[in-house]
Records
---
Amino acid sequence: MGYVPSSWLPGGVPDPLIDKRVVLGTQQSRIDGPDKVRGAARFAAEVRMDRLTYAAFVHSTIARGKIAQLDLAAAEAAPGVVLVMTHRNAPKLALPPPIGLTNLKAAGNNILPVMQDAEIRWNGQTVAVVVAETQEQADHAASLISVQYEQAVARTRFDDAKAHAQTPDSLMIEPNRLKRGNADAAFKAAAGRVDAVYRTPWHNHNPIEPNAATIAWDGDRLIIHDATQALNGTAGSLAKVFGIKETQIHVSSPYVGGAFGGKALWDHQILGAAAAKLAGRPVRIALSRASMHRLIGGRSQTEQRVALAAAADGKLTAVLHHGYSVKQPHSACDEAFTLASRSLYASDSHDIVQHTIDLDLLANTFMRAPGEAVGTFAIESAMDELAHELGIDPIALRRRNIGDSDPVSGAPRSQSDLMLAYDLGAARFGWHRRAAQPRSHQDGEWLIGMGCATGSFPYARMPGMSAKITIDSDGYATVASAAHEMGMGTATVQRQHAADRLGLPLEHVSVRIGDTSLPFASFAGGSSQTASLGAAINAASSKLAGELLRLAGNDTPLAGLRASEVEFANHGLRKIGEPSRYESFASILKRAARNDVSATGESGAPLEMLKFSMHSRSAIFCELRVSDVTGEVRIDRLVGAFDCGRILNPKTATSQFKGGMIMGIGMALTEETLLDPRNGRIMSASMADYHVPVHMDVPEIDVVWTDIPDPRTPMGARGIGEIGIAGVAAAVANAVFNATGKRVRDLPITPDKLL
C-alpha cells in the first residue's frame, strides 16, 4: 500500500465536512434522552409479549468433568414451572461461528457446544434452564435442582500454565513476534535502563443493563429483542446454530445500556431461543450479576515484562515487551497488550512477543480498549520509571521519543499531535507544580503526588457498513442502518452528520437504527462505528445525488450535471461553484410525481488503515493523595487531553471521554475478578464483591482536545469510545509513586500494597 497514491484511497480527497460544518461539531443533547428519562425507551428485557415466560439458569460448580446425575423432579413439580431444559432434551444445535473481521455475520465469543452433552468445560457453564410463569418462580425452581458430577483435573492456575504457553503467529491481524535491531547490545550500552514485570488481573463486564433478551418463535421465524452490539452478527450466528436461513431471524436492539465488548453472542441467547422453541412460548432472559460473571467473558489476566534502554538524553535505544495472557481455543479474543508498545515511541531496536495460555475457564472477550488498556499500563509505567532513573521530566522524555512516522513500519502518520495534547493537558492540570522527588508534598497524613501517562488506540473503519437515505416530498430525510445505540450517542451524532451532508436543518433529519430489517451494519466495536457509519452515509449521499439528478431530467437548472458536479445545500442540490443552478428536493420530486427518493451506500474497504499510521492518542494527568497511615488512595483530579481528529459533538464526546476515564479509575484501584484457583470458581460474582467506581470514588474530571481534523477519515474524526480508559491506570500508578516513592506494578493498587 505504500506505493499506492494517497489520492486513490478513501480519504484521498479530504471530506468537505471537515470545514463546511453547520450543526456537526456543535453541542447537541442525545435525541433518545427524553424517552429514557420518561421510561418510554424499551430495553431488551422490557419488551412486552403475550404469554411471556421467564428463565433462570443453573451453573456448574466444577471446572472440568461430566454431569453424573441430574435430579429435576422437585423443580419440574414447583409452582409455575413450564419447562426444565438440560442436555437431555435440548434441541440439536450447531457451534456458534466466532466473531471477527473475516465474517461480519458472526458474533460468537465462546465457541463451544451449548448444552449438547454432559461435559463440563468451565466453572459456571449452564447445566439447566428453568422456564416459569414468573422470574421468582423460575429462580426458586432452579434452586431445587440437584447436580452431581464426575470431576476431572482442571487447569485453572495462571502461573502453572505458563510452562505450556503457545506463541501465536498473529495478534489482531498483526504479526505477533517483532525483532528489529539489536536489543541485547542496546541494553548493555544504555545509560539508563528499566526492566520490570507488570501484572493485571481478570476483569468482568458490569454495564448498568445486564445482558438480556426477550425471545419468541413465530412458526419457523425467530424474533429476538436483544441487548447486543452485533445485530447482524447475532442474526447470522443464530441462523447457523439453529440451521435456518438468516432471513428467518429478526433481531431488534434499539437501546443498549452499555456494552463495552461484552454484548455480542453468548450462551444465554442460544439457550433462550432453544427453550422458547421447546416451550412453545416467548422467553425472557435477564441475567443476574452472578450469571453475568459466569457466562459473559471479561478481560484476561496478563503478566508483562517491559524493558527499556535509553541514552543519557532519554532517546530510546531498545524496547522489550514480552508477556502472557489467556486465550483458549474456544475464545475469539486476543488481549493484544503488546501492540501498544509498537506504535507509541521511536526506538533503535524492538524485541516484542506475546504468549497465550489455555485454561479451563470461561472464554475471555473484548473489553473497552482490549490490549491497549492493560498494555499502556505496563509501557507507560516503565516510561515513568525510566524518566525517574534518568532524572528527566516524564513529559520531556516522551517528547524526545515521539517520531513523525510509525516506529515499526515507517508508515507516515495521517494526523498526530500527541505533544500538543500534552501541552494542553499540562497547562490545564498545572503540571509545573509537580515535584520531581517522591514524597515531597504532604498534608497531614496525606502524601500528595502527580503522574501522567499516554494512551493510544488504533483507528478502525469497518467495511460493509450500510446506510439508506430517504428524502420525502416535504424535504425531510430519514437515515436508516442496523447500527447500534449503546449510550454513546450514535443516532444523535449521525443526525448532525446527515443534516450537514444533505444541506438540511437538523429538525428535518431523523435516524433509524437498531434493527436487522434495516440495511446491514457490522458490529459496534473497536471505536469504529462512527467512521464506518459516516462513510456509509457519505456513500449513500453520493448515490442519492445521482438519483435526484436522474429524476430531475432535462427540465431543470441541474440538467447535464453529474453527481460529482453538484452539492447538497438549502434543501436541495446546486452546482458546485455556481449556486444559481439549484433545485429543491421538493421541486424535483413533485415534477417526477414521486413521494420520496432513496439510495443506499456502503462503507468500502478501509485501505487508508494500510497506508497510514492512524491512532487516537491521549495525555492523562492525575493528582491524588495516599494516606501514610492506612494506604488509602484518593484521586483528587483527572485531566484527559485527547488527539482524536475532529470532535463531532462536544457534549457526547465529553461523556465518552469521562466514562472511559472512570473505567480507568476502576482498573487502577478497585476492579479485580477473584478466582478460586482450586476449582476455577469466580468468587467475586456480585457488585458487593466486584468493586466498580461509585460517585464517591470519582473526582473532578476535565477533558480537552486538539480538534485537529484527520484528512483521511470521514468527517475528519477518529474513534473516541476506548481511548479514554487507555493510560489512566498508568497515570494513577505514576502519581502514587510520586506521592509515596513506592512503585506498584500489580493492579489494582490496594492499600496493602502501599503499607
---
Amino acid sequence: MGLKSIRHHAGKLPSIRVYLVSMNLALLLLFMAISLLFWQQINNFYQTEQAEDIASIHDAMQARSASLVRSMALSANQAITGYDFSFLISLMQQVTEGDQDIQYCKVLSNLGQVVAHNRVDQVGSLPDTPVDKQALALLEEEFIGDQVTDFSIQIIDTPSAVATQSQMMQVVTPVFNGQELWGILYCGISLAAMQESINERTAEWDEEITRIWVFYISVAAIFILFGFMISLFITRRLLKAVDQLDAGVKEVSAGDLNYRLSMQGLMCAEFGTFATSFNRMASNLESSHRALDDYNRSLEYKVEERTIELARSNKELEAFNYSVSHDLRAPLRSIEGFSQVLTEEYQQSLDETGLDYLHRVRAAASRMGVLIDDMLRLSRLGRQEMRVGEVDLSELANATLSKLVESEPERQVSFQVEPGLMVQGDRQLLAIALDNLIGNAWKYTSRCEKAEIVFGKAVKEGKSCYFVQDNGAGFDMRYADKLFGAFQRLHKSSDFEGTGIGLATVARIIHRHGGTVWAESEVDCGATFYFQLP
C-alpha cells in the first residue's frame, strides 16, 4: 500500500479525542444509569417501609377499637341479662364523651329496634341509616346464620352518615342474653385521628425521603464531578502525550533529525516505550543521514574524478579515431591501389586461382573500409550534439524507402507507412536510426518473392511506440540479447552482407533520446523492431 493510500485511509479514521470523549460519556451515562437504578431500589424500600408503618397504625387503631367494643359488649351482656338498659345508655354516654374518636354507640336487638344509644333520643327508634341496615344484614348473615356463641368482632370501613363526613370505621360485635344471641352492638369510630397520624407519618417519611434524595443527589453529583475531573485530567494528559509524539513525528519527517522526544509528561509506560523507540529511530536516521552525506561527498569527489577521467578518455578516443581514420586507411588505400594495378596490368600473367585470390583481397579491403567507417560513425554518435525539434517520422521513412527503391528498382517490395507520425527529437539522428531499421528490413526480405515492409505506430503495455515490420528471414529470440551489440550478427555474412553495427547504432540513438528499443521475431516469419520515445 502506497503512502497516498495510507493517508487516504487514515483520514477516514476518528481521532483519539473522539474515542476518549466517547469513553467518558459512556462511563458517565453508565454511572448515571447505575445511580438511578440504585435510587429506585432505595425509593422502593422506603415506600415499602412507609406502607408497613401506615398499615401498623391502621392495625393498632383496629385493635384498640376492637378491645374497647369487646369490653362494652361484656357490659352490655350483663345489662341485658338484668334488663338494666339505663346503665348501658349511661355507659355509652361516658365512652363517647371520654373518647373523641367514638362518634356513637348502639345496641340493636335481633328484632330490629335500638334498645340503647349514647343519645337517649335515639332509643326505641328503628334502624334507618345505611349503617344500621348494614349492621342488621351482618346480624342475620354472619351472626345468626353461623349461630355465633362468642364475641366476634367485625370491622366495616364506610363513610359516616353523621355531620362530620369523615371516614368512619364501624366495629360490630354480637351481644347475648345468657347463651342466647340477643342483638348486636356497634360503634362508629372516626378515623380522623388515625388519618392525621398517618398524614404526620407520611410527612415524616416524605421528609426523610427528600433528605435522603438530596443527600444522594449531592453525593452522586460530587462523584460525577470528581470522576469527570479525573477523566478530564487523564484525557488531557493522554492528548498532551499524543500531541507531543505527533509533534516529534512531524519534526523528524520535516527533516529535523536532531529532534528528540522528552520522557516527561508521557503518563504511561506504553508512551515511554514509544518515545524510546522513536528517539532510537531518530538517532539511527541521523547516523544514516550523516553517513549518506559523507558518502555523497565522496561520491561527488569520485564523480569529479570520473568526469576528468572521462574527458581524458574522450580525448584519447578522439586521438584513436584520428589514428584509425588516418593510419588504417593509408594501408587500406595501398592494398586497394596495388591490387587494382595487379588486376588491370598483370591480369594476363595470373591464372584463375591467382585472380580469385586477388579479388578476395580487394573485397576484404573494401569490407575493412566499411567497418572502419561504421565504427567511426558509431563512436561519433555519443559525442554529437543533439538538436531537438519536431520530427516527421513518416517523412523520414518514406525518404529512406525511396532511396532503397532507386538503388534496386528491379525488386518487388510492398511497403506501407502510417502518415503523420510526429515526435520530438534530433532529426539527423532519427533519420540514421530509421535508415538502419528500414535498411535491415529491406535486406532481410531480399529472398522473399513478395516482400512487405510496414512502418507505423502501436500501443504496448499501455504506452505508445513505433515499429518497423517485415516478412523476411527473422531470427531466433533466444539470441535477442545480442541483437543490439556492436559487431553482433545472427546471420552469416555469406547469406546477408553487413558489419553488425547498424542495430547498435539504432540502440545508441534511441537511448540518447531517453527511449527504449526491442525486437520480436520468429525464424523465417519476419521481424518487428519497436522503439519508444518520451
---
Amino acid sequence: MARTGMNAGMKDRSTMASFMKGASLLLMAGFIVKLLSVAYRVPFQNLAGDRGFYVYQQIYPFVGVFTAWTSYGFSVAVSKMLADSREEEEGAILRIAFGCISGFAIIVFGLLFFGSPLLADWMGDSELAPLLKISALAVLLMPVLAVLKGFSQADQDMGPVASAQVFEQTVRVFVILIGTWIVVSYGFSIYAAGAAALWGTIAGELAGVTLLVLYTARTGWGFTVRSKVALWPTVRKMTALSVSLSFSSLLLLLFQLADSFTVFRLLEESGLPRLEAMERKGVYDRAQPLVQFGLLLASSLALSIVPLVARMDRKPGGRPPEHYVRLSFRAALLIAAATTAGLILTMPYVNEMLFKTTEGSATLAVFSIQVMWVSLLLVWMAILQGAGKEKVPALLLLAGLILKWTGNVVLVPALGIMGAALAGNIALIISTASLYYYFKRTWPIRFAPFAYYRKMAAALVSMAVCVLSWILLADSLLFNSLPDRLSAACTALTAAAVGAAVFLAAAAKMRILSEKEWYVIPFGRKMAKFQLWMNKNKRKGELR
C-alpha cells in the first residue's frame, strides 16, 4: 500500500460521507460480532449444562479482558497515533506498538500459564488450572491482530477490520459448539467442555490474524522507519490511551472477573455443597448473554451517534455538538429502559425458553437492570473520550469495580447469587451517578426536558400493562396445552412482540424523539416514517 502523502490523503478522505461509511461498516461488524457472542452461549449452556457453563464463565473473563483491551483499545490507540503522526514517524510507531503489546502479551501469558495453580486456588477450584493454561495461549496471537487492525484503521480502510472481526467470531462460535457437542457426546467432563470452548477462542483469533495478514501481504505494508520517535513517551501515551479507550468496554468483563474470584468460592464457604455451588454460579452466569443482548440493542444505536459529536465539534457551521450529546443520551435511555423493562417482565419465560428451566429468574431479572446503567456509562464515556477527558472517568469506573468486589464479599454469603446481582447494580448506580456529576461539570448541558421523562414513563407503563395482560392470557388460554419449554417460548416471543409494538407506538404517538432525531439513528428512518404516519391526523388538525 503506497503511503506517500498519507496524511494529506487522509485529510482529503476525511469527509462526512467517508467517515460515516467507515463508522457504519465497523458498527455493523460490531453488531454481528456481539450478536454471535450472545447467541453461542445459549446452545453451549444447553449442551454443557449449568455446571459446564460455570466452568467456561470462570475462565472466559481472563481471555476476554486482554482481548477487548488489545483488539479494541490498543488497535484504536495505534490508529490514532498513526493518524496524528508525521509520515516519516509511522514505521517507528508501528514497531514500538508491536513491541509494547508483545511485552504485555508475554507478561499476561506468564501470569496465566505459570500462575494457573495459584489463580485456580483463589477461585476455589483447582481443576480450572489446565484451562487457564489453554487461555494463556490465546493472548500470544493478540499483538499481531491488534497492530494489523490499527494499521488498517489508520488508513481508514475499515473493510479488512470489519471482515476480520466477523470471520474471527464465526470461526470461534463454530469450533466452540462443534467441540462442545463432541465432548458432551462422548461423555467427557464439564472441564473438557470448557477446554473445547477455549480452543474455539484460539481458533477464531488465528482465523482473524490469517485474514489480516493475507490482506496486508496483498496490498503491501509500505512502512519504513525513516525517523525515530521517543520510546518511553510513546509507550506511555499508547498504553494510557488504549486503557482509557477500552475501559468502558471492559467494565462488564472486569465485573465477571470479580465474580470468578468471589461468587463460587463464597457460595461454597457459606455452606453450599460443591456441585450445587457450581450449578448456582452457572445459573447466575445465564444473565451474561441476556444483558449482552440488551446492551446490543441499547448501546449500539446510541453509540453510533457519538462520532458525530467529535465531527460537529470541529466542523464550522451546522448543528452544535450539544445536539448530538443530548440525542445520544435520549436514545440510549429510551432503548435501555424499554429493553430492561421487557427483560424483567418476561424473564421467567425467557429463562425457560433459552436455558430449559426457570431457576434463578428473580436473580436474572435484578441482574438485567444493569443494562440501564451500562448503556448510559458507555455513551458518556465515549463522548468524554472524544472530548479528551479520559482519566477521571476511567478512575470512576475503576472505583465501581472495587465496589462490585466489595459488594460480592458482603452480600453473597447472606443472599447467594442474588447478592452478586445486587452488588453489580449498586456499583453501577454509584459509577453512573459519579460519571453524570463529572459530565455535567465538564459539559454543563441539559440532557432532556421533564416532558421527555414523563412521556417515556407513560410509554413504559403502557407496555407493562399490555405485556402482563398478554402473558396472563397466553398462560391461561393460548399456550397452556403445549409442552412447558415450547409454551414458555411462545409466551416469551409473543410478549416481546407485543411489548415492542406497544412501546414503539406510544413513543411515536407522543413523539418522545422527533422525526429528525430518528433519522440520525441507524435504522431509524422507518421509525421516523411510522411516527409521521401516527401523527398525520394531529398535524392536519394543527394546520386547520
